Amino acid sequence: MKLVIENICKDFTNNRGKALSVLQDINLTVNKEEFVALVGPSGCGKSTLLNIASGLLEPTSGTVKFTEVEAGYEPRMSIVFQETGLFPWRNVHDNIAFGLETAGMPVNEREERIKHYIELVGLKGFEKSFPHQLSGGMRQRVGIARALAIEPDLLLMDEPFSALDAQTRTIMQEELVTLWEKTRLTTLYVTHNIQEAVMLADRVVLLSRRPGKVNKILTIDIPRADRDKPEHAEEIAEFIRIIWEHISKDARAALMEVEKDG
Does the global pTM surpass 0.85? Predict the structure, then answer.
């Protein structure tokens, strides 16, 4: 199964009634079992594109479709946001159960599935804890477990670790790598963090400043488990340099445009 994004454009209307182009002619294919990261300057439309891919937002023009699927099959999608969106009145177990309950999964099968994903994200022993009793990293693990529990064909993640402190974020990145290697889920991931994109993704898609266009796609063929090893330090640093050069150039251009208009 592939996610195919074709000629996507998205316009919004500002408070003066003027059309504002956010995305322009986006073409991108996310292959089965591929991890693709979207990176670009603030306001380039990364999250807008993710919401369009998920079906939460309609494009102005263009199409999003799945290919290489059996006729009549409806692909499953899960989304993990920056804010976990956990139900405060539900404990860890019941938050993870929500999607499975909605799908009408039999109780015995549901309990086995919940147990599996609680253990997978390292939350065994916290099944009865409520969100307010958990750290930020643990809450995000619950959100990820809830997303994984329905065993989606496509996992969409929008800045899932941006609200965490630096140490917790690094740990969560490492844990996500481990999780992804176990599940091999097709993943579209939005982040502002350059190093995060380079350490996690098979490909990094660089979007231009608004209106967002695909400027460059970087393929990172270093095995994820080896990316923090000294022998790959120069390659990783070069990927980071290329991405930073792209983002900073566009960010400066956008700033100059604002100052000019002001």
Answer: yes
